[in-house]
Amino acid sequence: MDLIVCTIDLSLADPLVVDWAAMIAQRLNAQLRLFHAIHTPSDSLHPTTEFERGGKLHRLREECQTAMARLMTAVDVPCRSEIVFGEPVESVEAYCSNQPVALIVAGSHGIKGLKRLMVGTVVERMARVVSCPMLVVPIKTDASAGIGRLGICCDLAAQTPQLIAAGGSLARACNSEVFLLHAMAAPLLPEIVEPDGATYSEVQQTMMLRVQEQLLAMVPYPLYADVAVSAHLVRGEAQELIADLAVDAQIDLLV
After folding, report:
1. What are 150-186's pLDDT values in tens digits?
2. H or E stretch including 33?
3. What is the dihedral sign for C-alpha 66, 70, 75, 76?
4. Of 5, 35, 10, whose CA–CA distance to 22 is shortest?
5. Are 144 and 246 a contacting pair, CB within 8 Å?
6. CA-based, 20 to 30 A from 99: which of 2, 108, 205, 240?
7. pLDDT tens for residues 81-107?
């Protein structure tokens, strides 16, 4: 059976993150694992961790176990906790590389400004190193766990059908609508439009319709039979406009 790993940081955001993880685990008939890594900085003069002396390491583990047990009482899926000692990102990557993990669920605290520029965030670093899919839950969201509309960020690369199939599997399990989202980053310049009688705007519209058809052609046929699929395009840079497009379409989860 597949495994959903929910990373816990023992903050007030944990119940929301666990709620999302449990909802997906239930839909996919997967087991849920709550994972927490106790960060143990090394003492520069000793090979052991600086928390080991005085029994602090043992107390930290007990506190984590109590908090994890409290979170597990709120879920209705097979669930257990996993507590390790080490750097969080490295610990998650090592743990998931040896388990049949279908998805990692993590919360984002929305760190901005100089701190993000200098050190990044745990979630960003985790997304770079793990080899399995990852769901990031913004902890400031007011929405409860639920996926009525699932958006898939698409380009026209060879890997896009695989991405659509993966997102479609989750949409099918959650009975969600699928929105294929695409940004045309390089529209035609007016001076290179051939003089065939069509206006610049008409040429642009034709291009968007062709891309829309290409995206829909990448959708596996069985997915059409189970959920509603539509394609939505905007002109401009994807990193600037896809997020706005997702908000306008009221997307609950973005792949």
Report:
1. 999 988 888 999 999 989 988 988 889 999 999 887 6
2. strand 31-38
3. positive
4. 5
5. no
6. 108
7. 999 998 889 999 999 998 899 999 998
Tokens in use for 59? Answer: 């107390």
Q: What CA–CA distance (Å, rounded) separates 162 from 9?
A: 32
Residue type, 198: A
Q: 175: which residues sit within 8 A by CB, 6+ positions away?
A: 227
226 Ramachandran zone, left/alpha/beta (phi>0; psi -120 to 50): alpha
Global pTM value: 0.76
How far apart are alpha carbons 249 and 255 in whole angstroms?
A: 14
**In whole angstroms, what is the distance from residue 52 CA to residue 226 CA?**
54
Backbone phi, psi, residue 234, to 5°: -135, 160
Segment holding 25, helix H or strand E: helix 14-28
* Separation of alpha carbons 26 and 9, rounded Å: 22
Q: Which helix (H) or strand (E) holds 74?
A: none
> Could you give the CA distance from residue 106 to residue 122 in angstroms, rounded to a whole number?
9
Residue 92 identity (one-letter amino acid): V
Contacts of 228 (CB under 8 A, 6+ apart): 177, 178
Distance CA 70, CA 101 (A): 23
Residues forming beta bridges with residue 149, ordered by sequence position: 177
Distance CA 117, CA 138 (A): 19
203 touches 211 (CB < 8 A) = no
